[in-house]
Design goal:
By secondary structure, this protein is an alpha/beta fold. It has 15 helices and 13 strands. Bound molecules: pyridoxal-5'-phosphate.
């Protein structure tokens, strides 16, 4: 390897170590749950997993995966359109479509793959994509590769006046596509979908909603931000992950009209050129969807716990960002402060992540708590008190 390239890499790594932004991987010795054991650290309470409903190590999910491994083997060793589609993939896609009330769905190896494979497949020259400035990196990258003749615009975060102005400016375009996260992952706030839907109607725009952090968490039965606003039937295309509240471990999907699914099968590059989901994951996905449908009380309890935690942080003077999701960030300022506080939290037995620039704006570094249905009130109290002891 070129010594010049290697030196550049090591210099950048040294600089990251020096300014406290180097990401050191922590190795867990146990399954995901409210408490985990970390190599070299010991037992801690976990507050940074997306296992919102406790499905990641649920016996039904794990045994569905195990049975599929026994029956279908480890993988198809193929992409879907060659010989990588098993009946278990079709079942999962039907389950995803039924869950969202859409005509069809298509799975990918991750939501990252789904989001990066969507726009280039469905857009035509002259179309305009209007994307919230805080959308997830996978949407941003997917929009980037949508094609040179597609206009890409970014509207201010959840700012409907800005979005309206941009829709107005492009009202003659052949197609307008509004793209938003449901729950914004660094803020924990939710998109104003009721207003987005109204604007989409007015300007004949299509809505793409990535509700990766909303599914299983927001809405009366956990169907996400669209359920929260009562607009499930007005979202054109949903994207999402099987790797957060749905505890399949990995996998993503796009749900929407049949014409979208069929177009993606013809043209979406991560679908055409990357292997199918392992059958064990497909089975775990279907088992998770069944659990979600049969246990709406889990969703309610998770929502109550997240609200309780936010209130408790407020009572301790810690001012978490407001929101309806299970993501609860507390802004601390400088990146090095967030990294230091997260380190002290870990020493005190709470595993929470510090996020700094460039993931969040300069001066708005934060620790981000993620509440799970599996957390007890005592777990939540300990996390809140620990942060208060460190920063007050
Ligand atoms: C909003 C959003 N979309 C997509 C993804 C990617 O999901 P996956 O892990 O399935 O690739 C994430 C993961 O962090 C996310 O938060």
């Amino acid at each position: 390897m070129s010594q010049q390239v290697l030196k550049r890499l090591s210099d950048a790594l040294d600089a990251a170590e020096e300014n406290g932004t180097y990401k050191h991987l922590k190795s867990l010795k146990t399954a995901i749950g409210p408490d985990v054991s970390i190599e070299g650290v010991g037992d801690v309470l976990l507050f940074c997993s997306n296992d919102y409903l406790g499905f990641a190590n649920n016996t039904d999910v794990v045994s569905a995966a195990r049975s599929a491994l026994d029956h279908y083997g480890a993988s198809t060793a193929s992409v879907r359109f060659i010989c990588g589609t098993q009946d278990i993939h079709e079942t999962l896609e039907q389950d995803i479509a039924n869950l969202h009330g859409t005509e069809a769905a298509l799975t990918y190896s991750s939501c990252w793959a789904a989001n990066t494979g969507l726009f280039s497949a469905i857009c035509a020259p002259g179309d305009v994509i209007l994307s919230d400035e805080l959308n997830h990196a996978s949407l941003i990258d997917g929009i980037r590769v949508a094609g040179k003749e597609v206009t890409k615009t970014v509207y201010k975060h959840s700012d409907m006046a800005d979005l309206r102005a941009k829709l107005e400016a492009h009202k003659e375009a052949p197609g307008r596509i509004i793209v938003t996260d449901g729950v914004f992952s660094m803020e924990g706030d939710i998109a104003p979908l009721d207003q987005l839907v109204a604007l989409a109607k007015e300007y004949d725009a299509l809505i793409v909603l990535d509700d990766s952090h909303g599914l299983g968490v927001v809405g009366e039965t956990g169907l996400g931000v669209a359920e929260h606003y009562g607009v499930l039937d007005q979202i054109d295309i949903f994207t999402g992950t099987l790797g957060k509240a749905l505890g399949a471990g990995t996998g993503g999907f796009i749900a929407g009209p049949k014409a979208v699914r069929e177009t993606l099968i013809q043209k979406s590059r991560p679908h055409l050129f990357s292997n199918a989901l392992p059958p064990s994951v497909a089975a775990a996905g279907s088992a998770s969807i069944k659990l979600l449908k049969e246990n709406p009380e889990r969703v309610k309890e998770l929502q109550e716990k997240a609200t309780w935690f936010r209130n408790r942080l407020n009572a301790l003077g810690l001012n978490p960002l407001e929101g309806e999701s299970a993501i609860v960030p507390v802004i601390l300022g400088e990146t090095s402060t967030a990294i230091r506080v997260a380190g002290e939290m870990l020493d005190a037995g709470i595993f929470v992540t510090g996020f700094g620039f460039p993931v969040v704006p300069e001066g708005e570094a934060r620790v981000r708590f993620q509440v799970s249905y599996l957390h007890t009130k005592e777990n939540l109290e300990k996390a809140a008190q620990t942060l208060a002891n460190i920063i007050n």
